[in-house]
Amino acid sequence: MTDILLMLGVVFLVNLLPAFGPPTWTVLVVFLLTYDIAEPVLVIGGAAAAASGRFVLAHAFRRLAPRLPEHKRRDLDAVGAVFTDRRGGRYGVLGLFLLSPLPSTPLFEAAGLTEKIALTPVTLAFFAGRLVTYSLYVGGASAAEKTLGSTLQERFTSGWAIAIQLGLVAVLAGFVLVPWAKLLDRGHDTTA
Question: Domain-by-domain residue ranges, the chain?
Fold first, then answer.
């Protein structure tokens, strides 16, 4: 039971990191290879802990949003309106969190900054999607147990991995800096 609690805690903490966190599937694979935890527990518990961590991370960014300049808040509200004003946009954002091949950290940070996006549905979509992907990774790791040690080490320390993380931080900063209200022609109505 201690191993399971440790796995849940580590996965939760990794998903709280705003940058430079290892992919959750690698953490689950390490626990698979190191501890005697059943695969369904790893997958379901890992997905729940990851979703909980991302939810808390998004809420932390939501608390940061009011501290941004007014014009930035208008820009972020304009982006949120694109995803929430129409049914297709709402389904699109849920699909993005369910099936996206993009790293989830910047998605949750952006959703947190965009106050119009409801965090509970996107977190539930993320959880459902991660049940599938973590099942694939953990199942694959069981089959390839002998060769994964060096692959995981490379994943955490390679120049490419670090460059990708820096790039994701830059993408998030760029997202905040874009004048979305002007580009989307929203936020000009001062009567609201």
Answer: 2-183
CA distance 158 to 150: 11
> Could you read off the pLDDT of 110-150 as tens digits, one per residue?
888 888 888 898 899 889 989 988 888 888 776 666 555 55
Find, among 127, 107, 104, the residue nearest to 47 by Cα.
127
Distance CA 87, CA 36 (A): 45
Query: What's the CA angle centered on 163, arms 162 and 167, to 5 degrees?
Result: 120
CA distance 122 to 83: 12
Q: List, in sequence order, the alpha helices (H) in 65-158.
A: 70-84, 87-99, 104-113, 119-143, 148-157
How many Å apart are CA 49 and CA 18, to the nearest integer?
16
In sequence order, what are the residues at sequence separation of 6 or more whose Cβ sits closer than 8 angstroms to the Cβ of residue 158? none
Backbone angles phi, psi at 101, to 5 degrees: -80, -5
Local structure of residue 144 (DSSP, 8 states): T
Instruction: Give the predicted TM-score (pTM) of the model.
Output: 0.72
What CA–CA distance (Å, rounded) separates 23 from 37? 19
Give buried/exposed letters for 146-185 (b at 16+ CB in 10 A, else e): eebeeebeebeeeeeeeeebeebbeebeebeeeebbeeee
CA-based Rg of the chain, rounded to a whole angstrom? Answer: 18
